[in-house]
What does this fold into?
Amino acid sequence: MAVTTDIVQSWQRPRAVMRRHLQRGRSEPFAFSLLIVFLVLAFIAQFPAAARVTALDPAIPVSAQMLGKGLGLLATIPFFYALAAISNIALRAFGFGLSGYAARLALFWALVAISPFVLLVGLVAGMIGPGSQLMLIGLLTFAGYLFQWARAIVEASQTPSEVA
It folds into this structure.
């Protein structure tokens, strides 16, 4: 299915979408592509805020800001892999039987599932700027991420390990 369809369905039936992804079989390129999709969308979400900064201070070009933001997002790739590994170890201590691949897929899919909200955060940052609205949208985005990640972890732990 298309990623956009899966994103919409993940807010209606998050476990069914995760189950479908796990049933594809183990595919590290697929998991990595989910992370890249999120990072590309997060990069796009940074543009309105960068344009706002340039509009307020023309001495700071958008291109320089976007280069820095893009390199910063690329630097988060090892962090996300480490977060998946650490969360997998912690979840095993609490009795969740996840494979490393299932833990990565759950984390990366949760990131993709909240990408529309990440784009909304970028729009609010660019149009309204810092303030309570941006903080509220950011908190809602983080809560949505935790919800998606938790539901994906529960489904991945109930999927047989030979599938994941």
Observations:
- The chain has a mean pLDDT of 90.
